[in-house]
Amino acid sequence: MKYEVIITSDRTMMSNHHGKEFLGFIATGPPIAMSERLWLYLAAPKPKVDDLGRPVEAPYGLRKIEAVLVNAGFNAAIIDPDHLDKHVDSAKIVMIGHHDYFAYGPPSSEWWSLTGLEPINRRSFIRLMESPAIRRAKKNGAKIIVGGPAAWQWLYETEFVEKWGVDTIVEGEGERVVVKLVEKALRGEPLPRYVYVGVDNAPGVNEIPVIKGASVNGLVEIMRGCPRGCKFCSVTLRPLRFIPLEKILAEVEVNLRAGVKSTILHSEDVLLYYADGVKPRPDPLIKLHKEVLERIGPDGSVAWSHASLAAIKYAEENYRLISKLMHEYILSEHRKFIGVEVGIETGSPNLARKIMVAKSAPYPPEEWPSIVEDAFRIMHENKIIPAATVILGIPEETPDDVVKTIELIDRLKPYRSIIVPMFFVPMGVLKNNNKWFLRDQLKPEHIEALKKMYEHTIYWAEDIMKVYMDSPRYLPVKALLKYFLWYVKYKVNKYMVKLEEIVKK
Amino acid sequence: MEAGFKDPGAAVLIIGNPDDKCLERLTTLYRVYGPRGLKLIVISNSGVSRVLESMRSFLQKNTSFTIELYVVNPGDATRSGVDKYTDVVTCDQELLEALPSNLKSKVVAQ
Ligand code: SF4
Fold it and tell me: CB within 10 Å: which end of chain A, N or C, has fewer?
């Protein structure tokens, strides 16, 4: 089989992360306490592939591009990076997607800044681009088109654009534009070096295709865009669209047919599926869960990619919806909890009002800290384990804002969760302010906040690991993680002292 | 029904690598023509990397409209595929003088 378009990414993306999406985040850091090989094994083991090197599970964004191209009549497929050599002599176009090409996104940039060591995802991507297969494709005249959520990073690495012969950088939603680009490339017409896909070219729901092959850990998109408008977020720049239930179920079936029995319901805020503005509605959410869970059965795992804390509070306090979804639909003998990413970002109502005024909606930003606390309590009581983010170094942040964040983290101690600090990265409407937050800008209050988050996460980590990886097949991964945690505990105190010295200077 | 990609409705020719002054003018044009979608054709002999570098702040300010950016060598300038430019921004007078006469006359006629 010869493909005219091959779609790929590096190993940190092309992996199912042992079936545990969260382990993929390990690739955002540099290898610490173990070799790069072991680190990569932990974060991104090689996936199962067929004879042609097509992975059974592939990143969802790449699956969408593949589906659009196949539907448009092109001979396109996703190929694992280790199997590119089978196809580079016939491919006319190599398409590459990534969440964090050069480790400039959060949290990679933060680990990089704190440790001074290049994160694995960046190393792995550079290795892919310098691999004999990609070089051969280029030598044969193939066009290289790059895109995905991290496409903006190429504007900071323009020398690589030239060195690797990247023909086009696509920023924004790809469904419409890729067809045009592939047509142009196959006709031998000049390609734009850079395309920003504006709102007028965002695909309508009918143009978003059903994936053709399984996605990593069964991720399926249930809506696109987010109405909350946080200033530091690029998702919110896109129009809001709900994916109809039939399409969602069709994708669950695609995953099941490929043997992927888990489902991650993906949205920037799962509870806003067919919501009334920012107020969750029980009916569409119950229907969604009922239908999906009927298909995956009692032993398939399920997760929510993201949910907002305000929606969790609202849904529970008004409809007892969180308890209902968890106890009547989700929890089973095999599903003892679910994981979700949530954004705290700050504990300061003042800063919340400045940078994320609608994140607390329908409640006012003044109530933000208590919304966070209430939502954490609700999740804890209902066996939802959040991985929460806090942003340090937001341009308008004051020392008092950070102190408020520290106090909030203290109050979250009783709730099973992990809290991950993120250094501010200019994105969303703040993307042009260029005020990256780096180690040199750390103040004493930031160090204190980092300590608090570290202590909180370490406090809960072993407990979470027990429920997160309760099957014997996770023993090797668990052993590595335990070793890693031990090492971090051993090193971190010394490191904090070093950071304090840097701050004093 | 598939709507397909809407091509940008305005085309701006940029002669030379844009400096701050050129970017200011480009920003004005963006405000006027941006909603139609912008095709930017930069004629430059300094390489893609330099052009992207100097356009970065401009490109990053855009969070709404479709922008296509082409970078062409002066020798290929006539093959940009655009018949009529909505506007022209000259950042390098010498490069303008060196353009093929048919393109130069088009530019001067703007
Ligand atoms: S709630 Fe989350 S996805 Fe929505 S705008 Fe804010 S940060 Fe972005």
Answer: C
Q: For residue B89, is pLDDT > 50?
A: yes
The answer to whether A453 touches A110, Cβ cutoff 8 Å, is no
Is the Cβ–Cβ distance between A277 and A314 less than 8 Å?
Answer: no
Q: Which two tokens stand for residue B4?
A: 């397909």
Q: Please say if the pLDDT value at position B106 is more than 70.
A: no
Cα distance between the two ends of chain B: 39
Longest dimension (CA), chain A: 62
Q: Which of A235, A351, A368, A371 to mutate to test the pocket of ligand 1 (most atoms within 8 A of CB)?
A: A235
Q: What is the spatial distance between Cα A28 and Cα A285, in angstroms, rounded to a whole number?
A: 32
Q: What is the Cα–Cα distance from B103 to B96, expressed in whole angstroms?
A: 9
**H helices present in A132-265, as ranges:** 132-139, 158-163, 175-187, 245-257
Task: Please name the helix (run of DSSP H) or strand (run of DSSP E) that holds residue A193, with its range, or none.
Answer: none
- Is the CB of A236 within 6 Å of ligand 1? yes
Topology of the domain covering B10-76+85-109: Rossmann fold (3.40.50)
In the reported structure, the alpha carbon of residue A246 is separated from the centroid of ligand 1 by a whole-number distance in angstroms of 26
Helix (H) or strand (E) holding A275: none
Domain A215-504 has CATH 3.80.30.20: yes
Closest chain B residue by Cα to residue A170: B68
Confidence of residue B1 (pLDDT cuts 50, 70, 90): very low
pLDDT tens digits, residue range A280-319?
Answer: 999 999 999 999 999 999 889 999 999 999 999 999 999 9
Q: Over the stretch A422-464, which tens digit does the pLDDT of each residue have? A: 999 887 766 666 677 877 788 999 999 999 999 999 999 888 8
The answer to whether the CB of A18 is under 6 A from ligand 1 is no
The single residue listed with the structure tokens 């408008």 is: A229
Indicate the domain borders of chain B: 10-76+85-109
Q: Nearest-CA neighbor of A258 among A292, A206, A215, A197?
A: A215
> Which segments within A98-206 are labelled E, that is strand?
143-147, 168-171, 194-196
pTM confidence score: 0.94
Domain locations along chain A? 5-201, 215-504
Q: Is-contact A337 A383, C-beta < 8 A?
A: yes
Q: Contacts of residue B79 in chain A, CB cutoff 8 Å?
A: 190
CA distance A344 to A173: 26
Strand order in the sheet with B87-90: A76-78, A5-8, A93-97, A143-147, A168-171, A194-196, B67-72, B38-43, B10-15, B87-90
Do residues A316 and A322 touch, judged by C-beta distance below 8 A?
yes
Nearest alpha-carbon partner for B89 in B44, B45, B46: B44
Question: CB distance A190–B70 less than 8 Å?
Answer: yes
Which pLDDT tens digit goes with each residue over A127-185? 999 999 999 999 999 999 999 999 999 999 999 999 999 999 999 999 999 999 999 99
